[in-house]
Please model this.
Amino acid sequence: MSSTIEKLAESLRLCIPFLKAMHADNTNEIAAAGKEALTEYDGKVNDPRRMPAIVAAQEEYAIPSDDNIEIDDDAMIADSGDGIWVQAWVYVRNEDIKS
Model:
């Protein structure tokens, strides 16, 4: 996972000169927000409950779903206090999409 964080950090570093040129007044706020997002992301990736929560979600929802729900092994998580939200992919057929 650290490679994902490193790639994201490098992407943010590459954006800084562009941000300075385009939005000189907001660069520090944007950089601070990016640093905060990376710190939050790192905390979620390193949460010891992450993998057990992903496995539980895969077993409870993805496996019995007949391939309509997919949960990646590197899914993001969000603590809700009394449980954990696990990022998932939900398949929607074209005919179920209403315009």
